[in-house]
Amino acid sequence: MNKTIVVSGGTKGIGRAIIEKFASEGFDVVTCARNQKDLDELVSSVNQAKVFAMKADSSKVDEVKTFIGFINSSVSKVDVLVNNTGTFIPGEIHNEDDGVLELMINTNLYSAYHLSRGLVSGMIENKSGDIFNICSVAGLKAYPNGGSYSISKFAMHGMSLGLREELKPHGIRVTAVHPGATLTASWEGVDLPEERFIKSSDVADAIWSAYQLSRNSVIEEIIIRPQLGDI
Length: 231
What we know:
Blueprint: E1 4-8, H1 13-24, E2 28-33, H2 36-45, E3 51-55, H3 61-74, E4 80-83, H4 100-126, E5 129-134, H5 147-167, E6 172-179, H6 200-212, E7 221-224
Parallel strand pairs: 1-2, 1-4, 2-3, 4-5, 5-6, 6-7
Helix pairs in contact: 1-6, 3-4, 4-5
């Protein structure tokens, strides 16, 4: 029986790269995204593994809970969970639009909180599992124009630390992944050369390497930055 990875927001960028990496290593995949066309394209292109895909907006609690039901009805066991769903709206805390904080907390934090809560009981029962939370270097150090995005990612980092302490007695490893500027849709239209960015595939490879460690060990945090420094 193949192992299973669940990746939220898996049709683009880092999520897509993680799916392609783990699928190439023999994992079955369960994922969600907001765009059905993107999901259909993912299912048809990742043909070396079973891919179970559902349209869901992870910023909405009821849709996350529906996705949890979809996961449990599609696979018998979850070996790896990647909380990847996220959004970025640049701005400053003191003058950004009303509702920006709520949107990014719902998308970047609450989605991971509810999805983890919905799946972790199965990992505890199996006494094994890995959770990778896609945080950000913005959750380690505030930077200009980070606004509520930094708030949400600091909170995501805090949740990762809490989960790590709660779940280590149960054989479950939790890793906070902190990428810097990665070449994804968030940076579309920016006039910078490709070499100034991290490749999504590099983030996926780092996660795969962390997963490959023996169960005696855990990489608690992965920090990846562009070789030429933060943007």
